[in-house]
Amino acid sequence: MILEALEREGVEYIFGYPGGANLPIYQHLHEHPKLQHILVRHEQGAAHMADGYARACGKPGVVFATSGPGALNLVTGLATAYMDSVPMIAITGQVASTQVGRDAFQETDVIGATSSVTKHSYLVTNIAQLPRVIHEAFHIATTGRPGPVLIDICKDVQQADAERITPERLEIPGYQLNGHVDLDRAREAAHALAQAERPVILAGHGVLLSRAERELRAFAERAGAPVGTTLLGIGAFPVNHPLALHMTGFMGTGWNLKAVQNADVLMMVGMRVDDRVTARLADFAPKVKTFIHIDIDGSEMGKNVRPHIELVADARNALEAMTPHVGPLNEGRGRWLAQIDAWREEHPLKYTHSNGRLQPQDVLIDMYRRCRNDAIVVADVGQNQIWAALWWNYDRPGMFLNSGGSGTMGFALPAAIGAKFGRPDKAVWCVAGEGGFVMTAQELSVAVEHQLDVKIVLLNNFSLGMVRQFQDDFYGGVRSQSDLTHMPDFVKLSDAYGMPAIRVDKFEEIGPALDTAEKTKGPFLIDFRIDPEANVYPIVPLGKSLNDFWEAPN
Amino acid sequence: MIETTPPQTVAARPSPGSAEDLAVRVRVLSVLVDDGSNTLSKVSGLIRRRGFHVRSISVGPSRHPGRSRMTLTIDAGHAETDQVRKQLERLVEVIEIEDVTGQLVHSRELVVAKVSSSEVAGLVKWGAKVLESGPDGTTVEFAGEGKDVGDFIDELLHHGVLDVARSGPVVMRRTA
Question: Alpha helix (H) ranges present in B30-73?
């Protein structure tokens, strides 16, 4: 009955792992050939795969795990999806309803353990609840601000017989969607932005989730307003557009931060305005007279920055409603855009590439030259993530995936595998540091088993690079536990998993190595031995304001 | 909706710890919830997670089957005060919330107390009702607004108070 319900919801892939408390479901899996089950090597891998799948193709990712340790291994993956508003359904087996609360074998209070990292959760103790619960779960996971929903199903329920029940009409009184736009406020916001002397728009993940990139572009062009994105909003606005400010936040571009800190009207669309965006909150965008905040989740209004005009609405609906009301623009607009161009010249992204060591930016620049925007880049967490965010001119949604909110190391490999299942038509590049990579490296088995064209670019700097950089710059230069010695030989490791790999430590070898990776069918790994001193710039020192960003040394 | 005040971040509030600050931070919410097995822990977990603090809570069945009415008095801590309502609204288990802070409401707390003295005429004059009286003492109940209940408990001290059980407030908006 569970599997039938999943078929009804249009599920193609299940990323899962069997165990004692979900065996009754697995017993019937072969009767449902439409559901393809991907056997992972660790449940965390399943959660990240489902997450990568959902981010890449927009459909909810589905995960199976057994009770106790199986379900607990999902927690990090659920938290990752929850922080980044990714639709996911996790179905976990639970001990029999008669055993609940008796500390039975592999019993854990999974609802309790996951409540704070799921949008909603259900404990199913009776077969009659099941069709409604599954239908509701998909609805809740995919609508409004999406997120993971967990369904914990007692083993006896999985074994119970029931007549086929089609789910009743959805009726969830505690779940109201904020879809419609307050037109007066939309008009007010459009006027405020048009009349601003120094407007800035920042776009977050919400723009991608509501597929509002076209509407954002139309609005920005009409209002003559420059647009930056958050780390998760990358792809919401083309980086090579004349109005683009590229990435904002404490590792954002210099011209973006200059624009934000000098803006008089700041419109924030589909974003949480978290500490990585604002740096020191008291000094965030200090010249702004009017903050405009658009988000589908009303609790984001005033959570960090109190807006003067708030629109609790879907980003696309809001932008669509606003565009016709952009009146005459402020006369000073030309000056503002010229000023931003000057800042772009003055504070370009830069790096050192002549010190004889392999620079990560060289690798990314070569990759971008060959892939442009036809490949999905899945980054891990740390320096590799920021390099992959900044050194690529993303021009459309869904091409850069990363764990922005939760910053989960080990995300990239399984998420890239999930992304490839979701978008088999796209080349998928997994960009990771060696630290994060070994946290979920066991999922290489899945890539090999399914001969997935996932190309792994390891930016190997023999350390936890971001930690090392923070220690060097902000913690008195004391390098503590950030050197990664005794790591595996990644070429041999790949070989052990049955996949090809090569090692690169010279600039001249980048191109040929990437050629080989592209030509090879199935998974491929390149261990790029990069400059261990390579750093991420710009960066705002911890606790400082966005004004205080440091740039790459000359 | 354009305010005339300068842009504010969450830092701008009366000085921390002052009585004024406390009055701003504390919200009284009347919340209609699904009475599922996870509801109380979802509500209390959210309150803890967001850095809020429960000052009082009363839960009982509502007149709708399957739904309970919670009356929560919550200190918003370092968050914007309207975050308490907004965060609770996000829970699927929460059906309806009314923020009744500072509204004209009927607010009642119940106290049941045991005193050693058998001479409780003074308490009865306050409006207390005698529930039980015996050689070991007298048990009385009293309901009233928070301040009256506080005063009543002070009064109990003169009667050799042995034990006190006090509820949180339940509230209802005044009709006029």
Answer: 39-49
**Cis upstream peptide for A538 (omega within 30°):** yes
Q: Which of A362, A85, A343 is nearest to A209 (CA)?
A: A85
Which residues of A lie inside 8 Å of B (Cβ-Cβ)? 111-112, 115-116, 119-121, 123, 140, 172-175, 185, 188, 192, 281-282, 284-285, 288-291, 297-299, 301-306, 308-310
Distance CA A488, CA A205 (A): 36
Query: Which residues make beta-bridge pairs with A121?
Result: A150
Alpha-carbon distance B21 to nearest alpha carbon in chain A (angstroms): 18
CB atoms within 10 A of CB B16: 9
| Nearest residue to B29 via CA among B87, B78, B111 | B87
- Specify whether the CB–CB gap between A94 and A122 falls below 8 A: no
> Phi then psi for A244, rounded to 5 degrees?
-75, 140
Q: Tell me which chain A residue has its CA closest to the CA of residue B8.
A: A306
DSSP string for B82-142: HHHHHHHHHSTTEEEEEE-TTSSEEEEEEEEEEES-S--HHHHHHT-EEEEEETTEEEEEE
Distance set, CA A220 to CA A75, A213, A258, A330, A365 (Å):
39, 10, 19, 14, 28
The letter for the amino acid at B18 is S
- Total count of residues recorded for chain B: 176
Q: What is the DSSP letter of A45?
A: H
B151 Cβ partners below 8 Å, 6+ apart? none
**A32 and A9 Cβ atoms separated by less than 8 Å:** no
Chain B residues with CB under 8 Å of A119 CB are: 92
Rounded Cα–Cα distance for residues A512 and A502 (Å): 11
Look at residues A424, A412, A339 and name the one whose alpha carbon lies nearest to residue A381. Answer: A412
C-beta of residue B105 within 8 angstroms of C-beta of residue B174: yes
pLDDT along chain A (554 residues), means of 10: 93 98 96 97 98 97 98 98 98 95 93 96 93 95 97 95 73 84 95 96 97 97 97 97 97 97 98 96 96 96 95 96 95 96 96 88 96 94 97 95 97 98 97 98 98 98 96 95 95 98 96 97 98 95 95 88
Q: Which residues of B114-131 are buried (b: 16+ CB within 10 A; e: fewer)?
A: bbeeeebeebeeeebeee
